Amino acid sequence: MADADTIIEIRDLATVFGQGxxxxxxxxxxxxxxxxxxxLALVGGSGTGKTVLLRHILGLTRPTRGSVTVLGRPAxxxxxxxxxxxxGMLFQHGALYSAFNVLDNIAFALRELGTLPPALVQDxxxxxxxxxxxxxxxxxxxxxxxxxxxxxxxxxxxALIMDPPLLLLDEPTAGLDPFSSDEFCxxxxxxxxxLGLTVIMVTHDLDTLFALSTxxxxxxxxxxxxxxTAQQVAQFDHPFIxxxxxxxxxxxxxxxxxxxAAAPQEA
Length: 267
Ligand SMILES: Nc1ncnc2c1ncn2[C@@H]1O[C@H](COP(=O)(O)OP(=O)(O)OP(=O)(O)O)[C@@H](O)[C@H]1O
Fold this sequence. Notes:
By secondary structure, this protein is an alpha/beta fold. It has nine helices and ten strands. Helix 2 crosses helix 3 and helix 3 (about 120-130) packs across helix 4.
């Protein structure tokens, strides 16, 4: 039963594309609950339906069967105006508008809403730009002149423009070099704590998974086969999990000591 701390509740979800002989089942009997303050990493092999699941949560697509409840309301009601006040989405490649400068990209959803005077929209966008670790002088740059790490920061500022309590991240560190990736994880961790966000991220990257997630849910065989801490999930007996956590990077990530910043502080 959902309570006030349940941010997302997915019950008996099925997603079937096509019909008849060409019907293709992506999800079947999928259950998932996400609670306030979690950073849930959604992992699974290619084509297991992670992106489709994010799209259901955003209300962009509807499942064939079952329910997706986000912040107490059916996800389908999220689409359209005001959606970005409830859920922020960071797309894999940033998806910035190439014809708009940084500040106009960040301000986009708030400006479209038309409820604030333009000068105030600019001010709010500037606050988000700083929040994402960018400088005032970056405001007038065009997307083509930004590094990969800066594009992610602009996209993050844009996702947070309306102060949504829920943030969805699709491969947040994909395409970044290890240093930029670490920096971006650190920023996400700080913002999660400072803004009290609930985060769901799709990631293939083990370092990102270990650096950020408070829980991992594994998508395989059309549903969530297990969830728990990365260490708990790694013990689950399934070919995908063996493959995912195997190898040098997996062992290195598993051997990392817990992040001291995540531990409770003594008074
Ligand atoms: N609109 C659609 N119509 C038909 N099939 C679709 C549609 N959207 C997604 N699919 C199929 O659903 C399956 C799951 O796609 P999805 O993009 O969610 O996978 P994923 O887990 O995100 O994969 P990856 O890790 O490779 O990005 C794929 O086989 C994809 O081709």
